[in-house]
Amino acid sequence: MKSDQNRSFGRLGDFFRAAQERLAKLAAGRKGLAGIAGASFLETTIIPIPIEIVIAPVMAASRARGFIVATVTLAGSVAGAVGLYFLAWALFDDLAQPLIDMMGSQQQFDELQSKFEDGGFWLVFLVSVTPVPMQIAALAAGAASYPVWLFLIAITISRALRYYGLWAMVLGFGAGIARIFEGKKPKNISVPGK
């Protein structure tokens, strides 16, 4: 039984590594910024791997370009979230429910959908800032017919905090911060003023 469990975790780890590598190749390709926007869109819609793993090293490689990278990442993420929102709003039973089933997140989805009645804006905002998969919040908001303009404001502000905050961290602490997002131990993180 332990062996089966280890194989399952191994396959899951292989999937995440392959998806991370694919996103990194897409972001680093000839089209660069378009690749980052596409990777951000995919991260928000179907690949639950934080995009920070991809963009932190890109920001560290060119700190001056970090603002543009954060902006493009934000645009891709918001587009993906709005797309999922409208998918759930229009075609929940046909398309969104199978996606929830594929992710094995029905219980999370049901809990989020019921919470939208009490405080949907803050729920979307908090889910968007944390590493919790954004897909569930976007699908729940659309399925609950939460006002799209409030959803758009919450997602834009919260994701902007994440991506521009990452850029500020890279500016302040240097390339060592990127190694943390790659899952490696930082060699040296220089703290300004010390």
Question: What does this 3D model show about the protein?
Answer:
With 194 residues, this protein is mostly helical. Helix content is 79%, strand content 0%. The longest helix is centred in the middle third of the chain and has 38 residues, at 66-103. The mean pLDDT is 75.
Quickly list its features:
194 residues; mainly alpha; 8 helices; 79% helix; 0% strand; globular
Summarize the structure.
The chain has helices at residues 2-28, 33-45, 52-61, 66-103, 106-129, 134-143, 148-173, 176-181. It has 194 residues and is an all-alpha fold. Helix 1 (2-28) runs antiparallel to helix 2 (33-45), helix 3 packs antiparallel against helix 4 and helix 4 packs across helix 7 (148-173).
- Which radius of gyration do the C-alpha atoms yield? 18 Å
Beta-strand content bin: under 5%
Strand-pairing-aware structural class = mainly alpha
Show unreliable segments.
Answer: none
Shape: globular
**What is the end-to-end distance?**
52 Å
Give me the strand/helix succession: HHHHHHHH
Annotation field: number of helices: 8
Nearest-integer average pLDDT: 75
Number of E strands:
0
Q: Main β-sheet: number of strands, strand sense, barrel status? A: none
State the helical fraction: over 70%
Sequence-ordered SSE layout with sheet pairings:
Elements: H1 2-28, H2 33-45, H3 52-61, H4 66-103, H5 106-129, H6 134-143, H7 148-173, H8 176-181
